[in-house]
């Protein structure tokens, strides 16, 4: 209904059309609005009657007026009637009769308007006594939910139409039909049918031939065409069909999609219906998504309104509190000023009283002295002069005592009101926002085998109340958002005041994911995730497992064959094979990723690997299902062998640490903890443990590719001078 109303709205007054004019450009305009346009072009030297043209407000087409002015333009009677019906439907409400009930189509066999005496079906001859509808027809007509009104009646409401002239494209009541269509040419050639709605009466016009209605369908171009297009246009060689035939085929496919027929094949060939259905499905889905998105946006808008009102109320409350604090402080300081004034004036009054008393005494002494000096009687002068002189001398000597000191601080001029700092603070008042996301500084972070120290920076450091550190073991997920939302085992360290923190008790050789959250009263924001790893588990050679012909260094990091070494007692943990001499590491590893290196001497053979605790000690390691070893020949130019145990990913890899080259990889499904093992035939080796995993082996894709390739070579006894034994 709203869409229809927009189509019936004048572009000038934005109200429903009133007395609409039909412009030559096919747009409409209220008569009064058109008059106002002409009036706007008037001036003192250009009267209204002299204006001969104006522009259509919709398309800017220039409308030329004849000598009659606006009266020379046609009235849009059809549009006026539509507006009238629309207004009636709007007043009657949603329960009013619907206008959507279809009237009979033009091709539905309606009889032209003629008299009961017969006559031509297409003329108005002998229609002086028009046939009235039968009782059955009248009942059917009256049963329509919305009757078709005459479009030519001037009375309100218009009478019911009895015929529609297809030529004029207007519906008439009996009286208007007699007045407008007399029984003479050219009206005898007009085609009259039963009353129909405008939408069914007016057909589509051809895009290439003006005023020609489409009546064919070009199958080649999938386009509606007129008869001229087929006769003289570019479609004259194309295959065409009637509109009804094409309509039936497409409808047959749409109504019965499961029936395989020629119509289905034809529709499949053109793809019109299928494309339409697919596009319609996508459009409906898209509309549903847009509606959901719109609902979310509306919800957010509502939340914005609520939050804004809350913040505005909070602003008023906070500012009122500040004003109240200032008012209270003003009163307190004013009272202090008054009290200080009273105290200082009291002191000054006391000092003035003392000065007045001293002044009176001094004046009395001066008067007495002057009187003595004027005494001419020798006896009297001698009697009083000495006493007066002593009193004057005494007063002069004690003048500093007699004259009280004046305290200049009592003038209250050392008092100042300086609120510049507070003013700057008030000028900086603003609403608080959540701090910017902090940034984890990977280059500053450090790690040991069981600790990681995380460093970060924040652009809004002064607005941050505290930080929160979250971390968990990295499971290999590349989508950190999904990881953040799905993992329940996040460890949280709250209320951190510095921009760094050391996490203890971590697993050795394990990669972790860290987030840092900056928090203040307005909210919080997370940093980007950082993947940090602990170093490998440090270990030494275990003396209890060393072969009795091996000598270990004091730091248990070097082992050397020594035939003259002291006899050691035999224990189940000690290596006891003949021809090779081994020792195990001091730790067993059951998780994580660990890396160590072996500095090779000049021994004939070396064997480096891992083994279960239950692996036999009286035979070469790698010859059983409980140990895995890499055999190295002395002739090979290898000075530093790197070993990477990725327990969680079931792999044991060996590298030339000096040349950053991958040598060999075992795929092992570890079931028990394993310990590093080392065997020599002669000379010595030195181990370096607790190392971080080097960058050249820290690439999962490269590692996986090398593992897949080299594990296929395990059947060969030697790999570039080395042998993988199991």
UniProtKB/TrEMBL annotation:
Domain named COS: which ranges?
373-432
Asked whether the keyword Protein biosynthesis is assigned, the reply is no
Annotated B30.2/SPRY domain ranges read: 519-715
Q: Where is this region: Disordered?
A: 89-140
Q: What residue stretches are annotated with the B box-type domain?
A: 201-243
Q: Name one GO biological process term.
A: protein localization to microtubule
Coiled-coil regions in this chain? 273-307
Gene Ontology MF term list: microtubule binding; transferase activity; zinc ion binding
Bias kind Low complexity: ranges:
122-131
Identify the residues that the record assigns to the Fibronectin type-III domain, covering every copy.
434-537
Q: Which domain of life is it from?
A: Eukaryota
Sequence ranges assigned to domain RING-type in this UniProt record:
10-60
Q: Which InterPro entries match?
A: B30.2/SPRY, B30.2/SPRY_sf, Bbox_C, ConA-like_dom_sf, COS_domain, E3_ligase_FN3/SPRY, FN3_dom, FN3_sf
PROSITE patterns for this protein: B302_SPRY (PS50188), COS (PS51262), FN3 (PS50853), ZF_BBOX (PS50119), ZF_RING_1 (PS00518), ZF_RING_2 (PS50089)
Single GO cellular component term: microtubule
Q: Which Pfam families match?
A: ANCHR-like_BBOX (PF22586), COS (PF18568), fn3 (PF00041), SPRY (PF00622), zf-B_box (PF00643), zf-RING_UBOX (PF13445)
Q: Where is the composition biased (Polar residues)?
A: 89-98
What keywords are annotated for this sequence in UniProt? Coiled coil, Cytoplasm, Cytoskeleton, Metal-binding, Microtubule, Repeat, Transferase, Ubl conjugation pathway, Zinc, Zinc-finger
Q: Where in the cell is it found?
A: Cytoplasm, Cytoskeleton
Q: Does the keyword Cytoplasm apply?
A: yes
Q: Which family is this protein grouped under?
A: Belongs to the TRIM/RBCC family.
Q: Spell out the protein name for this chain.
A: RING-type E3 ubiquitin transferase
Q: Which organism is it from?
A: Oncorhynchus tshawytscha
